[in-house]
Amino acid sequence: MASYRFSVNGAARTVDSSDPDQPLLYVLRNALGLTGTKFGCGLGQCGACTVIIDGDAVRSCITPISAIAGRSVTTLEGLGTPDTPHPVQAAFIAEQAAQCGYCTNGMVMTSAALLARQPDATLNDAKLALAGNLCRCGTHHRILRAVMRAAGRTP
Ligand code: FES
After folding, report:
1. Which of 43, 56, 71, 85: CA 20 to 30 A from 10?
2. 17 close to 4: Cβ distance less than 8 angstroms
3. Dist. CA 154 → ligand 1 center (Å)
4. Closest ligand 1 atom, CA of 50?
5. How far is the CA of 44 from the centre of ligand 1 (A)?
């Protein structure tokens, strides 16, 4: 059993695990109760499990806990609150950019990471950033409008 120390949503956390390959996704959902991060494919293919680690959008289902020791993880819960949502969350609400909502975590987290490093992102930048995030409902147009709204652009 080893202890892994890292930051989650600004708070220091220590998680004990006997498996250094345990996916961060399981740690977040099962050990820390942060269920905003979704299990989709479990294979790094869909993006539903995306979190932000040290500024980068990362797929937590294929990120082993041993790789995040000492790092800073932000989940959907750490992005904003119902009273003070992150601009991307507010834009997704304004544009009603969810249908079933299962992909929304990944869409929001990937978009937030994009706009943090590139606040003036264009529609094409958003398309490229979200190309690997799957939405089976076909809500892409509303999602992209939301990202452009958050970027202060008219889509
Ligand atoms: Fe991680 Fe699909 S659940 S990419």
Report:
1. 43
2. yes
3. 30
4. 1
5. 4
Domains along the chain with CATH numbers? 2-76 (3.10.20.30), 80-150 (1.10.150.120)
Distance CA 9, CA 145 (A): 27
Give the Cα-Cα-Cα angle 149, 92, 143 (nearest 5 degrees): 75
Ligand 1 pocket test target in 29, 59, 105 with most atoms within 8 Å of CB? 59
Tokens matching residue 97? 């950019």
pTM confidence score: 0.96
The band of 154, judged by pLDDT with boundaries at 50, 70 and 90, is confident
**Cα 127 to ligand 1 centroid, rounded to whole Å:** 19
CA of 59 to the centre of ligand 1 (A): 6
Query: What residue ranges line ligand 1, CB within 6 angstroms?
Result: 39-42, 44-49, 59, 61
pLDDT for 49-77, tens place per residue? 999 999 999 999 999 999 999 999 999 99
Q: Tens of pLDDT along 95-135? A: 999 999 999 999 999 999 999 999 999 999 999 999 999 99
